[in-house]
């Protein structure tokens, strides 16, 4: 049985002894931060739709190299030879196929980081039942009707491959189709994933499942370097607009320090740092113990130095530049993006603060995300709660790097579970806090929809 990697904790007890912190829907935050938000929230409202956003999405970390080198090679501002060597040292452990002798398994999802994050990019929508072909998606498992972190009989996620023959449980993925139409009469078709567990048993029948794609590894170090106070102020500013958008911080535990901090990685913002997200994936997806997540009295199978190499490989990798930003269609599409209200959540510009890695410090970046969690409505709700994020809440996915995918290809899919085959379908699935923007999108003309998609494909 897979041991849970983390447990719920008492938010109130975590803050005892700190009378200068106040309770709100944003979590417990210092009073001075609330006052600062009151004074400055207007500066955090959506920018002018016609303002110029640089094609240098990652600031000084923006790379002009082609995919996948742009993501795999050290960013241009990593100039010191020893720093470039440190970043490069993570390439081999990221892409190496792990073996049982190295600590893989006995049950696992995939035998390498790069097996899911293909070429450091997005993984395909694939749940494999073949012992010879590892899965490239994670299937989260939760007992229906419980708030706990795992389906205790089965673990917190499906481990469908084994180093010792067949895994006891596997899954098959099918799709249910529904149809709808735009205001102009143009019809569209959406699909919903259905995970069927094998073999069927009493436990499987009571388990809620949630598919998770492997996201691209784009600029995680920069996202880590955005001050949490900035994210809090964005949340406050959204509430002040009263447009139905009420993103919030997901307060999670820093496994290194034990302190409560802001989550920003994972589809529900469940990990605060690149290192912790990496360590969690090693432990939950490959069952490899490491300095952060491990079994008691056992030597870590991934060393401190190897975990550091994997972390720096991702932190200091390049961010691909946007393209065709100056074209008339991209400019028109950008104006539509702002007018629909998309920028309320998909923030075009953020600023990093001081970071222990100097290359990440004080950068102007364009990730198109606020890193907050939002209620996306019943259409995307999966019944799986992760720490403070409910089944309907999802972190705003960064849009930088969208041009690396061509949604006219059958291999390109979107959203957390790959249900959207095009960017257009991904927008149509937006509900909850994004329902107004989605409704406005459905009332655009065919040309306006095409211009918006053209702009998004340029990022």
Compact overview of the structure:
The strands form eight sheets. This protein has a two-stranded antiparallel sheet. A two-stranded parallel sheet has the order 3-12. A hairpin with a 5-residue loop joins strand 7 (170-181) and strand 8.
Structure description:
This protein is of the alpha+beta class and about 450 residues long. It folds into two domains: about 10-90 and about 220-275 and about 305-459, no CATH class; about 95-215, no CATH class. It contains 15 helices and 16 strands. The chain has helices at about 10-15, 30-40, 70, 80-90, 90-95, 115, 200-205, 220-225, 230-240, 275-285, 305-315, 330-340, 425-430, 435-440, 445-459; strands spanning about 20-25, 25-30, 60-65, 105-110, 135-145, 160, 170-180, 185-200, 205-215, 250-255, 260, 320, 350, 365, 375, 395. A two-stranded antiparallel sheet has the order 1-2. Helix 2 (about 30-40) packs across helix 9 (about 230-240), helix 10 packs across helix 11 (about 305-315) and helix 12 (about 330-340) crosses helix 15 (about 445-459). The protein is globular and about 60 Å long. The model is unreliable at about 1-25, about 45-50 and about 150-155 (pLDDT under 50).
């Amino acid at each position: 049985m897979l041991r849970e990697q983390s447990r719920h904790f008492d938010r109130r007890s975590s803050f005892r002894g700190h009378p200068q912190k106040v309770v709100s829907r944003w979590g417990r935050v210092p009073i001075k931060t609330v006052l600062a938000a009151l004074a400055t929230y207007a500066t955090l409202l959506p920018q002018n739709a016609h303002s110029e956003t640089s094609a240098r999405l990652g600031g000084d970390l923006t790379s002009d190299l082609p995919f996948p080198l742009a993501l795999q090679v050290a960013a241009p501002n990593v100039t010191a030879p020893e720093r470039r060597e440190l970043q490069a040292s993570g390439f081999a452990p990221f892409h190496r196929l792990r073996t049982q002798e190295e600590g893989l398994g006995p049950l696992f999802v995939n035998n390498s980081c790069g097996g899911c994050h293909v070429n450091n990019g997005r993984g395909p929508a694939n749940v494999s039942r073949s012992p010879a072909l590892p899965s490239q998606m994670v299937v989260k498992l939760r007992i229906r009707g419980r708030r706990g972190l795992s389906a205790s009989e089965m673990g917190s996620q499906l481990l469908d491959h084994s180093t010792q023959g067949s895994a006891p449980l596997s899954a098959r993925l099918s799709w249910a189709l529904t149809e709808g139409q735009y205001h102009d009469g143009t019809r569209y078709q959406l699909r919903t994933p259905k995970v069927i567990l094998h073999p069927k048993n009493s436990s499987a029948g009571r388990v809620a499942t949630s598919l998770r794609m492997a996201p691209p590894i784009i600029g995680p170090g920069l996202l880590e370097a955005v001050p949490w106070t900035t994210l809090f102020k964005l949340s406050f500013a959204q509430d002040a607009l009263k447009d139905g958008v009420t993103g919030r911080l997901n307060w999670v535990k820093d496994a290194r320090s034990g302190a409560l901090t802001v989550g920003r990685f994972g589809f529900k913002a469940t990990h605060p740092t690149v290192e912790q997200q990496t360590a969690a994936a090693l432990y939950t997806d490959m069952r490899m113990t490491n300095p952060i997540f491990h079994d008691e009295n056992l030597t870590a199978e991934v060393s401190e130095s190897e975990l550091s190499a994997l972390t720096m490989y991702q932190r200091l990798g390049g961010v691909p530049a946007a393209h065709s930003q100056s074209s008339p269609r991209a400019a028109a599409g950008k104006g539509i993006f702002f007018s629909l209200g998309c920028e309320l959540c998909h923030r075009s510009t953020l600023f990093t603060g001081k970071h222990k890695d100097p290359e990440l410090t004080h950068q102007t970046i364009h990730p198109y995300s606020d890193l907050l969690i939002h209620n996306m409505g019943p259409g995307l709700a999966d019944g799986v709660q992760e720490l403070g994020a409910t089944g309907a809440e999802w972190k705003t996915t960064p849009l930088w790097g969208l041009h690396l995918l061509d949604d006219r290809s059958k291999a390109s899919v979107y959203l957390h579970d790959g249900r959207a085959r095009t960017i257009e379908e991904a927008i149509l699935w937006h509900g909850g806090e994004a329902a107004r923007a989605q409704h406005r999108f459905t009332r655009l003309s065919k040309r306006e929809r095409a211009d918006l998609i053209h702009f998004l494909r340029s990022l």
